[in-house]
Amino acid sequence: MVRIELVGVHLPPGPHPQLAERLVFDRGGINVVLGASASDGASCLDVIAGRVRPSRGRVLFDDCDVTRDGPVRRNVARAFAEPVVYPTLSVRANLELPLRRRRGWRQEASTRASDLADILGLQGALATRAGTLPAAERQLVALGRAFACADAAAILLDDPLAAVALPERPAARAAIVALAAEVRASVVWATGDVDDALTVAERVTVLAQGRVVQDGPPDDLLSAPATIELAAGIIDPPMNLLACAVQADGLRVGAARLDLPAIVAAARRVEGAGSLQLGVRADDLRIVAAPRATTLVAQLHAVEHRGAFRVASLRTDHLGLRVVCEVTQQLVPGYRYHVEIPAEAARLYADGVLVHG
After folding, report:
1. Edge to edge, what strands does the sheet with 353-356 contain?
2. Cβ atoms of residues 210 and 21 within 8 Å
3. Segment 324-332 long-range contacts (CB within 8 Å, at least 24 positions apart)
4. Using CA atoms, how far apart are residues 146 and 154, in angstroms rounded to an integer?
5. pLDDT digits 0-9 by tens, 313-343
6. Which of 328, 341, 101, 133 lies closest to 244, judged by CA?
7. What percent of the chain lies above the pLDDT cut of 70?
8. Given its phi and psi angles, is residue 195 left (phi above 0), alpha (psi -120 to 50 degrees) or beta?
9. What is the mean pLDDT of residues 211-222?
């Protein structure tokens, strides 16, 4: 396994976005590149794999410059969005092939193929021609091929679940996590699917047109999205974003004054910003019985049932609020309720960028 670093990388003119920042992928574990477009993550993988040589910048594997090395010398494996298998060969032959091509692994090929089939749930299909399998199982075979060589420096997954139907994705994700735990390689998974990123990643790098928007553990992405675009698009239900202003008596949201001193202090540090928005997750808000220093009065408009919980939609001073509530909580459309914003859950965005929280 290696620590992968892209330093000041620029790509040749063409369809790829520029990657003009420092990108780091940790040694071992699953690093997810979450891109708004498929080209964001794919460009990263092309550079790491050596398929695209930067016009400027360096690619480092454990501080060793591999910028001019090709894919073979870098010892990386890759799986793509569409299943890449040898359709006329059996599943076993497909899984064995990467090993039979490498000196030192040929004797272990059959045992390794059986082990991979166990992890992937393909034990009963080892003798089946890969081309006759459904798309989801063909992709599992392709993933098994990518993970076959346990000594690979890195394994690159290019939107590997794109061809897998939604009901089958949880099992496929679990299989990839099991494969990643079983090898010594660093895994870089590029995807535009938020569920993939939040389910499997140990670290998430969010890219937009080659620019790093956020980088860190998945929990940070959920609790403190770096931009209002992420806040509105990553979390379900989306984070509440409320226009706010700092006045002499404190923080104002509509006609309400909220006692949130840390937010007020942060807002004063960015005095002159074009717009300020108070962000708070729907599952951090609480409907309480009496007014407090951190409550808004809002009218209930609708309640959406989400299985184990409900999402209440309310309005206050023309501002919309979503609140996650227990199924047992009594809620009546048209009634006005006190909605509390816990200080520890409040985030402040200035001109669309997180500045506190």
Report:
1. 240-243, 276-280, 347-350, 353-356
2. yes
3. 324/237, 324/282, 324/283, 324/285, 325/287, 329/287, 331/287, 331/300, 331/303, 332/300
4. 10
5. 999 988 999 999 999 999 999 999 999 999 9
6. 341
7. 96
8. alpha
9. 91
Q: Which two tokens stand for residue 203?
A: 């670290």
Give the other-Cβ count within 10 Å of 77's Cβ.
Answer: 22
Decide: 164 and 172 in contact? Cβ < 8 Å. Answer: yes
Q: What is the pLDDT at residue 228?
A: 95
> How far is 3 from 5, CA to CA, in rounded Å?
7
- The Cα 216–Cα 211 span in angstroms is 15
The structure's pTM equals: 0.87
Token pair in block for residue 329: 């909580």
Could you tell me what percent of the chain has a pLDDT over 90? 73
Taking 90 as the threshold, does the pLDDT of residue 104 lie above it?
no
Helices (H), the chain: 38-49, 71-74, 91-100, 109-120, 135-146, 169-182, 194-200, 218-223, 228-233, 261-269
Closest of 322, 335, 298 to residue 237, by C-alpha: 322
- Non-local (6+) Cβ contacts of 247 within 8 A are none
| Max CA pair span of the chain | 77
8 Å CB contact between 279 and 347: yes
Closest CA to 199 of 2, 34, 5: 34
Q: List % helix, strand, coil for the chain (3-state, nearest 5).
A: 30, 30, 40
